[in-house]
Amino acid sequence: MNGNKAMEDANVEVEECKEKMVYMWGYLPGASTEKIPILSPTQVPLSLASDSWKDVCGGGCGFAMAISEKGKLITWGSADDEGQSYLTSGKHGVIPGPVQLPTEASVVKAAAGWAHCASVTEEGEVYSWGWKECVPSGKVIIDFTTGGSLQKDVAGKQSSPVAEQGSPQSSNTSSGSDSHHDNKKVGADVVKRRKISFARPESDSPASGDEFFTMSPSLATIGHGVKITSVAAGGRHTLALSDVGQVWGWGYGGEGQLGLGSRVKMVSSPHLIPCIESAAGKDRSSTFQQGSSVGAQVSKVPGSYVKEIACGGRHSAVVTDAGALLTFGWGLYGQCGQGNNADQLRPTLVPLLLGTGVEKIAAGLWHTLCVTEDGQIYAFGGNQFGQLGTGSDQTETSPRQLEASCFENKRSSIVSCGARHSALLTDDGHIFTWGWNKYGQLGLGDAIDRNIPCQVPIAGCRPRNVACGWWHTLLIVDKSV
């Protein structure tokens, strides 16, 4: 007994000698006075009294996001000339600081899209802020049972689609062509977006974009008794996962990324997404009408609840407790993994991964990654910058297993996607990145794209989690002190 106690004391002492540290690299313009890309892992100090790092959450366009041990949502890295990015991040640049939420409850999860954020508290509540079209208003814009297609906001004006940003210098570029949008309308929206993008944060008047943007985190009214445990943010849509494995969604759904069976342009209140048909009967949301090209029934899928969610630029992915992967939304680059380029308006099984036991998923602007229960990694979707890690720039419309030599005798455990880059953490603590690297988001010391996974050189620590923002990467590690 005494020997065991001595061993326990020794273990406690070892644990007490470890400190969590966060490293960053990529495009975070306000993280340094020089406003230049960070090409190699750089430590992020946290100067909050008696607080320390707990986890990393990636972040949005030009700002980083993490959670402290005291449950504070911490942001940094944005510059005051970044417009809505600076406002969304809580105006935190070089020095990481807490986002002021209208609750004292600790934050347990958080995510950021192109211009909006969402956080989950220990009480199971979701708060969101940023572009108003991404923030639930509590008002139902459309009755899905009628199959309507025109959505208007409370003022009677049609909601404006905002294209996802592909790079810091091209805030007016879309993630691809979209035949469903009227060209004149898109042009008008670009003008509106410019008003916000270059507005100075000192002015919070309607002239600086108040009509389209809110800095105040709002509580999402999801449903009586619903407790949310996780959240994912896409380009302009959000998914939330409840403690009983149900998925809720809101925001923009023009390509089916909300999984409601239609190209509904805007959903301003959280709606249940029909993912699984259980033995007790279909989810009540399965009564929603489907578009003419797809049947109205919800497919039977392996599993009884959803355990993982992810949002890409305009597509979504969920994993059931049985390891089945379902995707929905924009399919132009094959990011839904269905072997074609069609949009998926409802959660649809990825057939080639049935039986593999998918454990983890991540989604980028145009691509998707997943890790199976035996530690294998699969990739599919757009590959213009090598973000699939296959060794080429060829698009993959079906899941393709990565067989890089660097993965020999290693099991993948965590994946994350930026806009056009990818990151992987193995169970033995090695970090790999690949894809677009114009701003150093791969952390390899240069700005050269990679189309195969490359190990990030970081010594003297044990990586615990990796999370990509749109143009940057965050890593949290245990380090002996």
UniProtKB/TrEMBL annotation:
Residues 152-191 are annotated as: Disordered. It comes from the Eukaryota. InterPro entries: RCC1-like_dom, RCC1/BLIP-II, Reg_chr_condens, Ub_ligase/GEF_domain. Gene3D superfamilies: Regulator of chromosome condensation 1/beta-lactamase-inhibitor protein II (2.130.10.30). RCC repeats lie at residues 71-123, 245-322, 323-374, 375-428, 429-479. Pfam families: RCC1_2 (PF13540), WD40_RLD (PF25390). Signal peptide: none annotated. This is RCC1-like domain-containing protein.
